[in-house]
Design brief:
The chain is α/β, with parallel strands linked by helices. It has 13 helices and 17 strands. β16 and β17 form a beta hairpin.
């Protein structure tokens, strides 16, 4: 099929929920993709932070293929070694005590919300069920996780939203003002990705954790985008020095297959008892086989050190470019405030010139594969610099 035939088939088949770029990708290796006509693209987006090991990684592909040829699905009515081995490895690496596996970041956040509310009701009474989130946050696209999202732009059309959410600015005074006796949890992103790559202030995070502990309120960290090596530590909380009671993970965890994980501390492991939650495809053996490969490799100290080094290199190059007003973020989760033009126009021009890049509000956003090479980075940076220089 030609690229035009594929685009026509796509547009005639799907609900028009996505604004696609004009690129038809058919293959890839690490951070280099290829379209129908053989044109190459450098990938600075990794499928919105999903392809942590890049395209067609040999170890990941082999692990998935072996499992697919053995047992592709069982449901959670039975035990299987792939899911049990992965869960144990994830807990060992993360320092948590129990995990629930689903299929996406939104599902992981739904589980965290249910866990927090059940814990609040059981410990304090049925009114202890409100969750406080931060303005400018993003937690998913289900009706409940949209309600948890602290951005008005997402609060249209789909009423009534799930009740029980309140919002605070990312400072302790605002949190204190909006926290009530009915607050069971505070949910944060250490770096607000969809909100414009906005890292939380470390002092605020420490004060927030202390306040939550003082009031018996759970601290939930949405690490869907910041987790699994993205910021230079396996989970971002390690760099803030504040371990959440509940942590959610997805995106890069599966290496390209759908997964969501809700992790909790030992004190909370029994909250979600039998029949309180479930997922038909959660803990799928094929997905878990791929995720195990990701976790074992990304958690290695030398791998994480390389992510930090690559992130520092990208930042230093970006800060020297004409057309860049500001660079913010951590590790290989970076946002560029353009000095000229718009993120939408610049990202489209990047794709046209062979660079896949993301946006976040008014920013260009970089989430490259963690395995991207120096050569691939330099090729992508050259394209970006060309686009920024031509902008006006």
């Amino acid at each position: 099929m030609t690229s035009e035939e594929i685009k026509q088939l796509d547009e005639s088949s799907f609900m028009p929920t996505y604004g696609r770029f004009d690129a038809v990708l058919v293959s890839g290796k690490n951070a280099t993709g290829v379209d129908c006509e053989g044109k190459e693209y450098i990938d600075f987006g990794s499928g919105i932070g999903v392809n942590s090991l890049g395209w067609a990684d040999e170890g990941w592909t082999a692990a998935v293929a072996r499992q697919a040829g053995t047992l592709q699905h069982t449901s959670n009515l039975y035990y299987n070694p792939a899911s049990a081995t992965f869960a144990a490895e994830l807990l060992k690496v993360s320092g948590y005590s129990a995990v629930f596996l689903g299929n996406s970041g939104a599902e992981a956040n739904e589980c965290a919300i249910k866990l927090a509310r059940k814990h609040g009701v059981e410990q304090y009474g049925k009114s202890r069920c409100e969750i406080l989130t931060l303005q400018n946050s993003f937690h998913g696209r289900t009706v409940t996780t949209l309600a948890a999202t602290g951005q008005d732009v997402f609060h249209h059309y789909f009423y009534p939203f799930t009740e029980g959410f309140a919002y605070a600015e990312p400072n302790v005074q605002s949190v204190r003002e909006n926290m009530t006796e009915n607050t069971c949890a505070v949910m944060i992103e250490f770096i607000q990705g969809e909100g414009g790559v906005m890292p939380l202030d470390p002092q605020f995070v420490k004060e927030l954790a202390a306040l939550c502990k003082e009031r018996g309120v759970l601290l939930i960290a949405d690490e869907v985008q910041t987790g699994v090596g993205r910021t230079g530590s396996f989970y971002c909380w390690e760099q803030y020095g504040v371990k959440p009671d509940v942590l959610t993970s997805a995106k890069g965890l599966g290496g390209g297959l759908p997964i969501g994980a809700c992790l909790c501390t030992e004190e909370l492991r029994g909250v979600m008892g039998r029949s309180s939650h479930g997922s038909t495809f959660g803990a799928n053996p094929v997905v878990c086989a791929g995720a195990l490969e990701v976790v074992r490799r990304v958690s290695q100290p030398e791998f994480l050190a390389a992510v930090k080094e690559k992130g520092e290199y990208l930042r230093s190059r970006l800060e020297q470019m004409d057309g860049v007003a500001e660079v913010r973020g951590m590790g290989m989760m970076l946002g560029i405030v353009p000095a000229r033009s718009t993120a939408a126009a610049l990202s489209a021009a990047c794709v046209e010139n062979g660079l896949l890049i993301l946006t976040a509000k008014s920013l260009l956003r970089l989430l490259p594969p963690l395995t991207i090479t120096r050569e691939e980075m330099d090729k992508g940076l050259a394209i970006l610099e060309k686009v920024l220089s031509a902008a006006h």
